[in-house]
Amino acid sequence: MLSSTGGAWGTKSLMQDAQELAQVVDHFRTLQKQQQRASGSVSNVFTGKIALMGHSTGCQDIIEYLCGGAHVDIQGLNGAPRVARNPVEAAILQAPVSDREALELSVPAASLADAVTVAENLVAEKRSHEIMPSALTMQALGPAPVSAARFLALASPGPKHAGADDYFSSDLDEARLGTTFGRIPRGVQLQVLMSEADEHVPERVDKEALVERWKEMVVAVWDEDGGVIDGARHGLDGEESEHAVRNVIGRVLRLLERVRSS
Hints:
- This protein is of the alpha/beta class.
- Helices cover 44% and strands 8% of the residues.
- Helix 8 (207-217) links the parallel strand 3 (189-195) and strand 4 (221-222).
- The chain is built from 9 helices and 5 strands, in the order H-E-H-E-H-H-H-H-H-E-H-E-E-H.
- Strands 1, 2, 3, 4 and 5 form a 5-stranded parallel sheet that branches.
């Protein structure tokens, strides 16, 4: 379990999540090497194949893991070098969304601008880990405490939109996507499962076209079983959810079988 689980997400960062994921992957890679030394081959206990699957913010975590710090870190570590991490065989992004665009849906523009100003001032005063006033974050982000740094990572204000969590916004240009999707290692099988009826994605966003833009940037192995899931909401919930759930499960299982047998 990541330390950002539950209500702690607002005081953590994608970088920290990726570091904790790396510890898990490192453990299994070490176990693999130990078993190989003991038996001369990979044992039946661990095949050596690792797939990461993330939902919502978990999708950003996976991109952060694979790209090793693609964004300027707002929490005072500007220019942090990319991090080399142990490889994985597959990555699954289920319901990737832009927090910046989701905030624009749920918060009036003036209120969002006020919150950004407060957060930027705190960061400028080297108080990036200070908790934002709940009156500014409750409407969009709920009761969890949110630091100034994490708020800016999510809101990713213009003109640069340099927020550390801003991987999936529909207006990011090719140069920006090249630093994220374009840097996923070639050996990774990448499956993107975007929800067609995701309530956190603005209606103006053409989801099929957005996924296609991501695909065009990928040098890794793009899994053709991915795509936009008909009728799926963000959390695969709702009255018509059974078909969407079965659809997602089927696609994931087929990918895992291809990874297992490769």
